[in-house]
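Please decode residue identities from the backbone states below.
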């Protein structure tokens, strides 16, 4: 049976009654008790686990992935695992609210940053939790004004001051199948809004699975799924009973809704701050995700490991991720610069080329690769596939080059060298303004830093300063920022410095199961190398089994499950 079948578009004529029914349900939703919400989440966990395997099979079919291949594990890790973990953590947070008034953060997890702001360590919550990503430590940096004493005032405001009932139109992402359900769960259980989800046409096949898994929400008239394209989406977001909108997709979609089609009229509205859509819009809109390699005493093995780490950031999901590595930044005259690029190329050769299943990928790939000097292609693509493309030594002073201004959204990684060689401090002083002011996007960035370098107090201070000053919603050290997305407990979204007029990667947060507010960014730190290696590393043979076992683990975490998980993880 063919599973990846997109339902027909929802007639616009039927949306009015559907939206009105959900708006009525929203008024009742705010009165649902914590106990009822917890019971409902447990029911949703069971329902989503039941559709996990068939939804993964449908995704593999749609993306041209052999269902039994290791690459099928990507769909388990980025789909069911993320949603099931999100559901479990929401249950824990609601139980904390029952007992303590807010999701618990131990005082031992709090620290004061060098600039006086508060940070909270959220991952791992315990030793068992640390088994998901060994050696990783995740924190949240707060905006000024949040203190250890008033932290609870910046958590779970819906449960302290509920609104009267709001309805959010969620325009779902088409690339990663955990995004639409996770976005809706955030709106429903953190912000207390009912949701009508419009599926993206690219993965509309997922909609019937979500309707089945989230049927308990539909019976309460607080969740529904609709289908269609731009016309149906416009009708939905402009409906008078829709109070707010959440978009995961393109900044162009956001700007079209808010300011109208590109042109003088749109520019004038933007200048006057007179949007067409006068509703709250939260969003996650992509990024030119940079990976910065800070010079240090790397061994050949460490270069190979990080080359594989970066290659995994490129190859995963055929590079149709908003957090896929898109720009490699190194010191121009550093002796290891070319070796890092070589290591990425070699690691990409350990995985297969992918079907370019997201519309427009081939055209974008050509725009970024045609006429490029020194272009390196990896893989032999067949019909409908794209090679991995490395674009080395892009001039960082050519600010208008598209590699700095447009997200490729295909299998392209560009590389540039900022002036300098072996001095980490001087290099980082250039990196921060370059990324903040020259590279489009505010979603996530990676710093690769050698642990021996951090033993130098000056280097350590420069790294910490860079982490604080980078205008990204997630900064990862030695690991892929997608782990921030997957962990669920950490907030995911663009840096709050964006504005509706210059939206960049969007505004607002999702996941964030501790229900934190006044957030500045998430920071995730990891060892330079690890064993077993991360599951996104190219050539990992056990990732399909690992993904299934981790999804089952999130349904019932237990030390008894760890040996089987470890066995799959070590089949790298």
């Amino acid at each position: 049976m063919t599973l990846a079948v997109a339902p027909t578009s929802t007639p616009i004529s039927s949306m009015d009654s559907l939206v009105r029914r959900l708006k009525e349900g929203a008024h009742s939703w705010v009165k649902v008790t914590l106990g009822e919400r917890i019971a409902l989440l447990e029911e949703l966990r069971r329902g989503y686990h039941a559709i996990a395997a068939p939804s993964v099979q449908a995704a593999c079919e749609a993306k041209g992935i052999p269902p039994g291949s290791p690459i099928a594990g990507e769909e388990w890790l980025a789909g069911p695992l993320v949603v099931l973990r999100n559901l479990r953590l929401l249950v824990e947070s609601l139980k904390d609210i029952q007992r303590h008034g807010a999701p618990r953060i131990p005082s031992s997890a709090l620290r004061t940053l060098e600039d006086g702001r508060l940070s909270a360590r959220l991952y791992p919550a315990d030793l068992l939790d640390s088994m998901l990503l060994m050696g990783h430590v995740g924190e949240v940096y707060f905006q000024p004004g949040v203190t250890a004493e008033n932290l609870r005032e910046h958590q779970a405001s819906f449960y302290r001051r509920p609104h009267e009932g709001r309805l959010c139109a969620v325009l779902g992402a088409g690339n990663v199948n955990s995004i639409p359900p996770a976005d809706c769960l955030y709106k429903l259980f953190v912000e207390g809004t009912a949701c009508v989800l419009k599926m993206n046409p690219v993965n509309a096949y997922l909609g019937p699975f979500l309707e089945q898994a989230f049927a308990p929400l539909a019976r309460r008239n607080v969740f529904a799924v609709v289908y269609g394209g731009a016309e149906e989406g416009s009708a939905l977001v402009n409906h008078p009973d829709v109070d707010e909108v959440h978009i995961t997709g393109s900044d162009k979609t956001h700007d079209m809704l808010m300011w109208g089609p590109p042109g003088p009229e749109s520019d004038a509205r933007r200048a006057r701050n007179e949007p067409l859509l006068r509703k709250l819009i939260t969003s996650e809109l992509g990024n030119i995700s940079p990976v910065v390699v800070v010079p240090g005493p790397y061994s050949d093995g460490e270069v190979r490991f990080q080359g594989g780490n970066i290659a995994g950031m490129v190859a995963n999901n055929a590079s149709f991720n908003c957090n896929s590595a898109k720009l490699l930044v190194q010191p121009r005259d550093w002796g290891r610069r070319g070796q890092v690029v070589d290591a990425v190329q070699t690691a990409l050769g350990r995985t297969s080329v992918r079907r370019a299943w997201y519309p427009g990928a081939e055209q974008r790939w050509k725009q970024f690769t045609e006429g490029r000097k020194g272009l390196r292609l990896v893989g032999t693509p067949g019909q409908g596939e794209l090679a991995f493309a490395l674009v080395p030594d892009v001039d960082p002073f050519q600010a208008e080059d598209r590699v700095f201004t447009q997200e490729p959204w295909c299998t392209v990684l560009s590389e540039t060298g900022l002036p300098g060689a072996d001095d980490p401090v001087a290099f980082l002083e250039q990196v921060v303004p370059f990324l903040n002011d020259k590279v489009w996007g505010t979603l996530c960035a990676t710093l690769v830093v050698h642990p021996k370098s951090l033993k130098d107090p000056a280097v350590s201070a420069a790294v910490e300063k860079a982490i604080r000053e980078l205008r990204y919603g997630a900064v990862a050290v030695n690991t892929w920022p997608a782990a921030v997305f997957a962990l669920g407990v950490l907030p995911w979204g663009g840096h709050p410095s964006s504005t509706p007029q210059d939206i960049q990667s969007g505004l607002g947060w999702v996941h964030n199961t501790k229900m934190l507010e006044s957030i500045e960014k998430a920071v995730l730190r990891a060892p330079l190398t690890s064993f077993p290696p991360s599951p996104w590393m190219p050539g990992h043979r056990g990732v399909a089994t690992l993904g299934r076992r981790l999804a089952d683990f999130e349904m019932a975490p237990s030390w008894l499950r760890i040996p089987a998980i470890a066995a799959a993880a070590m089949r790298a």
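Observation: Residues 34-63 form the longest helix (30 residues).
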